[in-house]
Design a protein that fits this description.
single chain; 193 residues; two-stranded antiparallel sheet; 5-stranded parallel beta sheet; alpha/beta; Rossmann fold; globular
């Protein structure tokens, strides 16, 4: 049984969102003892020049302004560190992830916190975790040449050390919603808790 789940939703739609519905079903199936929820509609900030400068200033040398700039990122990183499993609801917008999810990724992927540079290149620091990504799309087929979301999310999870990544998709909802939802439900039924 999964102990601690971090549940992230990134759809701009509050009601009627297929990715939100799928991610909620995944979390319910996991039957976790603890669930932390983060809705990315709460408008995460984008990385700025000042944020980058603060991030690359050694922690013991940061001033109060720099610590304040990194406070939300530090909190988000702690949420990821505390989780055994990360469940991400991710719609495909214009062939890629929503800007809110990209902003979350930028706040999570931090050298020295979630990955490090080694003589062999970047090395993820979050091994032993699982990620389950619920992807929904109107017309983009997951895994097709036009899908710039699923491979990117797999890559970024691997970059921070999470290599156990599963994708449950309800793609091409505008083409055949019944088939898309049936495929997603079948994958959900087979999902190991």
């Amino acid at each position: 049984m999964t102990q601690h789940v971090l549940h992230i939703d990134s759809s701009a739609r509050e009601a009627g969102s297929v990715s939100r519905d799928l991610s909620a079903k995944i979390v319910a199936k996991l039957n976790a003892t603890q669930v932390m929820r983060r809705d990315l509609n709460d408008h995460l900030p984008f990385v700025t020049d000042a944020w980058i400068a603060a991030n690359f200033t050694p922690e013991d040398q940061r001033d109060a302004v720099q610590r304040d700039l990194l406070a939300l990122s530090d909190q988000i990183v702690e949420e990821v560190l505390a989780a055994d499993t990360i469940v991400i609801g991710a719609p495909i917008y214009n062939f890629a992830v929503p800007a809110s999810l990209k902003a979350w990724i930028d706040l999570v992927a931090r050298a020295g916190k979630t990955f490090r540079y080694s003589e062999n290149g970047p090395e993820g620091l979050l091994s032993g975790k699982r990620a389950i990504i619920a992807i929904a799309s109107g017309g983009t087929e997951v895994g097709s040449e036009a899908d710039f979301a699923s491979d990117y999310l797999r890559h970024i999870m691997g970059f921070i050390g999470i290599t156990d990544v599963e994708i449950i998709s309800a793609d091409r909802m505008m083409v055949d919603p019944d088939a898309a939802l049936a495929t997603a439900q079948d994958a959900l039924d087979k999902l190991a808790a």
